[in-house]
Amino acid sequence: MTSAISLSPVLDLNAAGPLRGILLERRGERVSLDASGVRRLGGLCLQVLLAGAKTWADDGQTFEIAPRSLAFDEALAQFGVADRFDNLHACGLD
Question: Which domains does the chain have, with CATH numbers?
């Protein structure tokens, strides 16, 4: 079963703890994150997402972020990590 999670429009310092908690509750499950409504992505939430992708890859579980807003993709590019999320597949990062 895949857990679908809609991300908050503003992923800032205040959203990092709750996002981490949501992901930890679903560890061991396939996860699909909907970033279509994200208007702002901050560095701390990005770290949570990168750690989640790594953890899910290590566990051999699906961790996908789709669909994604233009603002989300632009933030990934500004942080220099767009390529880290371009190839998310069933077993994680390439």
Answer: 2-86 (3.30.750.24)
